[in-house]
Amino acid sequence: MAERFNRIGTDKYTISVNPEGEIVLDVGLIGKVTINGDLDVLGAQTSIGSSELVVDDKTITINNGDPGGDGGITDVGDGNARGAGIIIDRGPDAFNSIFFYDEALKTIRNGAQPVGEGAYIFKLANGDLSGIHTSSIISAENQNLYLLGGGTGVVDVTGTTDYEKQIWPYTGDDITPDVSQLNGLSVPINDDALVNTRGLLDYVAGYFTYNFQDKITKGTTSPTSVKVFDTEDGGGTSKVEVAVDESVVATFFQSRVEFEDLRFDDNIVTNSGINSDIILKGSGTGRVKVDGWLNFTEEVTPASPPSEGSTLYSKTLGDGGTGLYFINTDGTEDELVSRNKALLYSIIF
To answer: What is the residue extent of each domain of the chain?
Structure first.
């Protein structure tokens, strides 16, 4: 290959053409122009027509020499909202793609926006945002990762296939049960996965399918509550307790109900206490009325007279012909006399 070498023995060598002229270094399509030393291009635009650009430099500075009079990238009125970056030409039928550092955007760090700091943006020339495909986004050590900075947007997993089924094992549309676990559901496939709305709804539905709440309560110091006990869960006697201000006022069993000291067992009403009275009392001047037959079963004579009033009871039929007896506060005990016996006694005596 022929080689020609010319040395110009001066400090500066200038090739000049008329304004708007052109200088062409033509080495053919496979030739090469080599520049030993720095290259300064002072024009407004540099175009490279090669199909591949290879750069050995580790860094590239964009927007070099910006005076920074606006507290960051200077607004030059080009519609890029004080931004600088890379524009990718997508052809005449599509909007260009832009990767910019935009001073107007917001960075959140430690829960606050640093003063005078923008953020990176991926978008199209019409302003529509572009997606970022990557395998991970890692925040600085011991700092939170903020996914939303304002507005009403949400974090969405649209596009995935059954996202919630990548968190828990499923049987059909339900989380698979597992009686060996405290919550009755299978152990999550991924303990660290973020839960979506569908997964949350399925978990709540599954939890209350296999876990029964045994108590409803309101209040803290003296709560009012309804509590369930069952023999299958080691709760002793199966029952339901209703407590008001921590005091049990009603207990429901399989075949009876107890309200305070009253016990309702089938068609029998008794007192749950020992040797305690049952009092039926009308309000004010009202009376206690019995709509039906009143039957006295045979009893023994009371061990002691009542503290007030009289006690009426039934025992073996005596001379009075009624079998109804009374005992009053002074200890007087006798049988009520029937009409026939009373007439007989009046004739005799």
So the answer is: 69-132, 163-210, 215-271, 290-349
Residues 147 and 145: their CA atoms lie apart, in Å, by 6
Please state the separation of Cα 175 from the chain's center in Å. Answer: 17
CA nearest to 174, candidates 186, 183, 189, 182: 186
Q: How many residues does the chain have?
A: 349
Long-range contacts of residues 337-345, Cβ cutoff 8 Å, at least 24 apart: none
Q: How far is CA 25 from CA 22, 32, 123, 143, 260, in A?
A: 10, 10, 38, 54, 109
Neighbour tally for 163: CB within 10 Å: 17
**pTM of the model as a whole:** 0.60
H-assigned helices in 138-259:
197-210
Mean pLDDT by 10 residues, the chain (349 residues): 75 88 89 89 84 89 80 71 86 92 87 85 93 93 86 91 96 95 94 95 94 88 92 82 94 92 90 85 91 91 90 91 92 90 77
Which pair of structure tokens corresponds to residue 238?
Answer: 């199966």
Tokens 């339901």 found at:
240
- Give the tokens for residue 116: 């005078």
195 by Cβ neighbours in 10 Å (0-12 / 13-18 / 19+) ranks as middle
Q: Are 271 and 280 within 8 A, CB to CB?
A: no
The span from the first CA to the last CA of the chain, in angstroms, equals 169
Is the alpha carbon torsion for 131, 137, 139, 142 positive or negative? Answer: positive
- Report DSSP state, residue 274: T
Q: CA 43 → CA 35, 40, 55, 87, 302, distances in Å?
A: 18, 9, 21, 19, 124
Contact 312, 297 (CB under 8 A): no
β-strand partners of 129: 123
What letter represents residue 16's amino acid?
Answer: S
Radius of gyration for the chain, computed over Cα atoms and rounded to the nearest angstrom: 49
* Residues 347, 349: Cα–Cα separation, whole Å: 6
Backbone angles phi, psi at 156, to 5 degrees: -125, 145
